[in-house]
Amino acid sequence: xxxxxxxxxxxxxxxxxxxxxxxxxxxxxxxxxxxxxxxxxxxxxxxxxxxxxxxxxxxxxxxxxxxxxxxxxxxxxxxxxxxxxxxxxxxxxxxxxxxxxxxxxxxxxxxxxxxxxxxxxxxxxxxxxxxxxxxxxxxxxxxxxxxxxxxxxxxxxxxxxxxxx
Length: 165
Description:
The chain is 35% helix and 16% strand. The model has no long low-confidence stretch (mean pLDDT 92). By secondary structure, it is of the alpha/beta class. A 7-stranded mixed sheet has the order 3-4-2-1-5-6-7, sandwiched between helices. The termini are far apart. It is built from 7 helices and 7 strands. Pfam families: Glyco_tran_28_C (PF04101).
């Protein structure tokens, strides 16, 4: 199952990109059978399909928690929100982050590109998503490991004069 999430925002360009026949055919050719799209506040409704000649496609606007969808996904395609990115990486799921170039002062681009450079995920734009999926090599991804904040917290406590544990 491929799970697509745009978070709480509107990112119709991403939803439109995954709703193209080209992307759906590439996903199906790569062995994926289901495409579930969380479309947030977007106004574009993707085409539902029951999988007669390809992917089973369904969508919804919001969910109280996307954690279950992330856990059951074989591949996640996400907007570049840090919460969505790190939740997916912590679960060890392959991730394609699609940058919303319409956002002003988009700091998300730097985060996505840095994590892509470190080979934790793939980074794409809506117009290049089909190429990214086509060239996907999941074996090349490096698992993301969270840093240990304890040494930093200890240093801050020491600096502020708190007693050591």
